[in-house]
Amino acid sequence: MLKSNLQNAEQDIRTTKQRTNPKIAGLRRWLRPKLLATPSEFDQATLADTEHRQTIIVRLQTLLQHNNIQVTPAEHQELEEDLLNDLLGFGAIQPLVQ
Q1: Cα-based angle 76, 80, 86 (whole degrees, multiple of 5)
Q2: Which long-range contacts (CB under 8 A, 24 or more apart) does 62-71 make?
Q3: Cα gap 66→69, rounded to integer Å
Q4: How far apart are the first and last CA of the chain?
Q5: Distance, CA of 57 to CA of 69 (rounded, Å)
Q6: How confident is the model at residue 11 (pLDDT cuts 50, 70, 90)?
Q7: Structural element, H or E, at residue 5
Q8: pTM for the model
Q9: Can you tell me the distance from the alpha carbon of 36 to that of 97, in angstroms, rounded to the nearest whole number?
Q10: Exposure string for 37-67, b = 16+ CB within 10 A, e = fewer
Q11: What DSSP character marks residue 89?
Q12: How confident is the model at residue 39 (pLDDT cuts 50, 70, 90)?
């Protein structure tokens, strides 16, 4: 019974796993360190902290504009959510934690 439930859960995870757009993945790697004033700036922050969320969102928008990086609204939302999860949450596993 337990083995069957585990196999079903693994199958559900495989079928719902979403791949990140390669463009977004590259931007995410490039932007992540640039969004931090210091490496430990957001170590004590959480996703519920609206002030820190807003700081990251403003910095992201500024970096995209200054570097003339064009993204679609859907790509922007994905990038913003991924970076917020990286910097304030549990990174890529944040959706599983919620």
Answers
A1: 145
A2: 63/31, 63/34, 63/35, 69/27, 71/23, 71/24, 71/27
A3: 8
A4: 26
A5: 15
A6: low
A7: helix 2-16
A8: 0.72
A9: 24
A10: eeeeebeebebeeeebbebbeebbeeebeee
A11: S
A12: confident
Confidence of residue 56 (pLDDT cuts 50, 70, 90): very high
3-state helix/strand/coil string of 17-61: CCCCCHHHHHHHHHHHHHHCCCCCCCCCCCCCCHHHHHHHHHHHH
Q: Rounded to an integer, what distance in angstroms lies between the CA atom of residue 80 and that of residue 72?
A: 12
Encoded amino acid at 76, one letter: H
Rounded Cα distance, 51 and 97, in Å = 22
Distance between alpha carbon 34 and the CA centroid of its chain, in Å? 14
The answer to whether residues 84 and 51 touch, using CB atoms and an 8 Å cutoff, is: no
Which two three-digit tokens encode residue 16?
Answer: 């719902």
